[in-house]
Amino acid sequence: MVALREGPVFPDARAAFFAAGPEPLDLAVDLSMRIGTLTLRTPVMPASGCFGPELGALIPVGELGATVTKTVFGSARGGNPVHRLTEIPAGMVNSVGIPSRGPAGYLAELHPRYAALGVPTIISVGGHRPGEYAPVVEALCEHGSAFELNVSCPNLDRDGTDIGSDPAAIRAVVGAVRRVTDKPIIVKLPVLVASIADCARAAEEAGADAVCVANSIPAMPLDAATRRPILGNVIGGLSGPSIKPIVLRLVWLASRAVQIPVIACGGVGTVDDALDYFSVGASAVQVGTASFGRPFAAVEIARGLGHRCLDAGVGSIRELLELETAL
Amino acid sequence: MNPNPFSERNPSLVDKLDGREGLDQRREVDAARRAAAARQRAFAEADAAALDGLISVRPRSLVPRPQPVWDDAEVLVHEPAGERYRRLVLASDAIAAAAQAGQFLMITVPPNGGDTVLLPRPMAIHRRRPAAPACPATADQLATVAIAGTVELIYGVVGRGTRALAAVPVGGSLQVTGPLGRGFEFPRGTRTALLIGRGVGICGVMGAAEDAAAAGIRTTMVLSGQRPEQLLGRTDCAELGVRVIEATDDDGSSGLDTLGARLRAEFDGSTPEATPPDVVMVCGAGVLARLAAELGAHWGVPVQASLEAHMACGLGYCHGCAAPVRTDPSVEGPLVCADGPVFDARIPID
Prior knowledge:
The structure holds two protein chains of two kinds.
Chain A: H1 13-19, E1 33-35, E2 38-40, E3 44-46, E4 67-68, E5 85-88, E6 91-94, H2 102-115, E7 121-126, H3 133-140, E8 146-150, E9 154-155, E10 161-162, H4 167-180, E11 185-189, H5 196-205, E12 210-213, E13 217-219, E14 222-223, E15 228-229, E16 236-239, H6 244-257, E17 262-265, H7 271-279, E18 284-287, H8 290-293, H9 297-312, H10 317-325
Helix pairs in contact in A: 3-4, 4-5, 5-6, 9-10
Chain B: H1 5-9, H2 11-18, H3 20-50, E1 55-56, E2 69-81, E3 85-91, H4 93-98, E4 104-108, E5 121-124, E6 127-129, H5 139-145, E7 150-156, H6 160-166, E8 173-180, E9 192-198, H7 202-215, E10 218-225, H8 234-240, E11 243-248, H9 256-266, E12 279-283, H10 286-299, E13 303-306, H11 336-339, E14 342-345
Parallel strand pairs in B: 9-10, 9-12, 10-11, 12-13
Antiparallel strand pairs in B: 1-14, 2-3, 2-8, 3-7, 4-5, 4-8, 6-7, 13-14
Helix pairs in contact in B: 2-3, 3-10, 9-10
């Protein structure tokens, strides 16, 4: 017996998800946000390293505000030895080591696929010395919609201190990049800093258009059976739900310190996670670890923000939060 | 004053736990646990070392790669399979229709009580049963329809993720992404094949047995495992007309030397039935991949090996599943999910 089903029948849940949106919210709700000269139609984007053009076939990427690439370094890197990732309660620890084929490899192999997705491409750029960032941005300048500077890298000019934990190094990196591009610059700050406010201010003063707070947290998972490190690189970066309260504090502190937008990144997996960050001052969110289990998580959050506003009869996230906090 | 419920009910147990004898026992248990962990570590290291220099990415084929989808697949069957595994039959027309031999799915683990598992778990597609024609006519065809549009997976409960997965009821649904990766492919003109699977790795090669049966390829499959009660795939092989060679740790028949000698003898060319296979496909252990590569070199036939790895995305963008291939440090090697899981396996020539 084959039951007749009402309405359209989709071959799989993915197809049904594509068909479910976007709804014509645009007239009633304005979710757009600006990073310098760049306007994003919605304040939701993937976190660097947690997205690839492969996802274009699985989710309606056009409903995101932007894509963010895996970090591009000035020279080719092979990445870290196996094992590169593991899961612990409420978190993932990865030590992938950011394999990169350099700017030329990125432009030849990856950029055309990002560009075809139809939303702004924010190119993440890394370096081992403050002087290494600007040449990469210069090489990619006409291709990226914006640049996110991944400063959570050991500074080989200063005995391996994280560039992003040193306001002077942040100033040097951002100043040099500012001189080679008019495109918006986002500085992605690390978690382990003496003062996130000082770091965010250093970025703002040197000409950054936004800061992204924060990155994964250095961590070291052990195998209980052998007492040995699980990761080939011994240490990795912790991400996922367990870091959200840590990053909420940092976003709160950073957004009180600077006028430029703060993009929150740390354990965002639901609309309420996003609204938590907006309520402490964030202007946008990045979705990382949640996307592995639920590839559609970022799109779901973008849709959910619109629906929450529509249901509350308000036109923006700001108004929605005012309504919620007035209760 | 620190009441001990055990002292009321079972004084002898307290004596055991608190007394000298108990301490010795605990030390024994502890030593046994350490020894087991050391054995496991030594095996894992040897297994990884066995792949050293062995594998390479297969040339791109002309067969179009299926486009993965994600689906909320209904759980039709979820039951024990043998002593240590569980069988999962999922309804998804889209995935069942597209899946190729040796491909895998990423299974998103639903929340279990208060425990949320973040990363999806990669699992080989054990059996594919694409949707049947729309209007079944015979009773046989009706029986087929009951399982049409499904994929079957088998997994062992080994950690948090698979424990949570085991709690999913029949009638519930699981979010799955797939089919993923590059699977097994029979070289053109293959008439006979040897498949080797160990443990849950038997599922990795069962898709190749399905293709072989459909193409009339004469197939032998080695089912390897710890104990006969744990071996997977006997029923599947019987259904597909695949000859089975069982090899278990219990009686030593799974030992590499023993198994290698047996397979050399089985395919020594002495009779038409004993002609060496045209291809060898293997999944489940690095040491078996090496044995298969040695046999392949002996017979002069190609060997394809399917590998496992921890992974987060299954699509290639997270770069979490580096394959054990040595490369220049500035060049990233292949990824198990996107370049594999099936690789060519050849004994390196020094």
